Amino acid sequence: MIEALIVGEMQDVQIGFVKQILSLNLVPRSNNTTCGNNTSLCDFSEMWYGVFLWAVVSSLIFHLPAALLALATLRRHKVARFFPLGILLMGIIGPLFGGVLTSAAIAGVYKAAGKSMFSLEALVFGVGQSLFIFIISFLRILATL
After folding, report:
1. pLDDT tens digits, residue range 48-77?
2. Looking at the DSSP assignment, which residues form a beta bridge with residue 40?
3. How many CB atoms lie within 10 A of CB 50?
4. 55 φψ region: left (φ > 0), alpha (ψ -120 to 50), beta (else)
5. Is the pLDDT of residue 113 over 80?
6. Who is most buried in 11, 42, 82, 133, counting CB within 10 A?
7. Residues in a beta bridge with 41
8. pTM score
9. Where in the cell is it found?
């Protein structure tokens, strides 16, 4: 009986976690803080983490299909079959180094202005970083043609 109760509580926690991620509520808190509502990001670390998390996720969303396509088309090539590893590494390493700095800059501007950031703004800034990197990378390839 106790095991069933514990399993039921674990399922509630997992459902709550999934709901939290899907609803963009990165930081759950009670409304006894200085933030305007439960979903706004007020501290520098919360804003930085929100933007950084979305930058990493969106970068992987861009790079994972490219790596899978490269793996499918180049799997029999002697040297080029290792290109998907490079694509995946760039999808992870880029946001880890560049995304950390740009996310900190965005969060610093918000903190210096004394504004709080909504979770949707963190999504827009994070995905925007990856989108700009994608566009610049594509334009650099076109410039070499």
Report:
1. 999 999 999 999 998 999 899 998 998 888
2. 118
3. 26
4. alpha
5. yes
6. 133
7. 117
8. 0.70
9. Endoplasmic reticulum membrane; Nucleus envelope
